[in-house]
């Protein structure tokens, strides 16, 4: 298991979700990828991306985000838009900290998260699937966590995979996106900086604890939000070897 980013020029947080111990084996490399935005792929990055074998990209961003920074993809990859929530900027306006935001994503957007997991259970046409948002940490982190937990990956491994985003996004990525928010006339407070760049393990621990308290298990949470048992079986067959 590794949470190191893959070398795709123009990304900072693109990772293969293969190599985790799961029920009955381990997650299959080269099948499911998570990432930050693909809007800045260079020509080299497009070649590196094509080499991953990704044929389907699920964009979890809202409509405004996609229009402002559309993905740059090779012709071999089809784009599917699946917003987790209608407005990312609206959540910034709610003055939530990263702990409350992470819990809110799971508790207020279970339907769209579950639909994303169902989508991932459908194999790509002859290749891998990648899903992403802007940073690849909050919305992407939730979908990744739910998919991995659904196939029996250990909770601690899932939480450490979530937490790895913070180091990948520090420095250039973080500074660029702070300037972007300033250009949108959003006041960059310490709270906003936290939302943009941090992924403390305590945040996902708290969110998963809330899910478990309300539903008993991640699988039951997914079922309650519309994921069928046969979709969970397909996801396991697809991801675990």
UniProtKB/TrEMBL annotation:
It comes from the Bacteria. SUPFAM superfamilies: (Phosphotyrosine protein) phosphatases II. GO terms for molecular function: phosphoprotein phosphatase activity. Residues 111-159 form the Tyrosine specific protein phosphatases domain. Pfam families: Y_phosphatase3. This is Tyrosine-protein phosphatase.
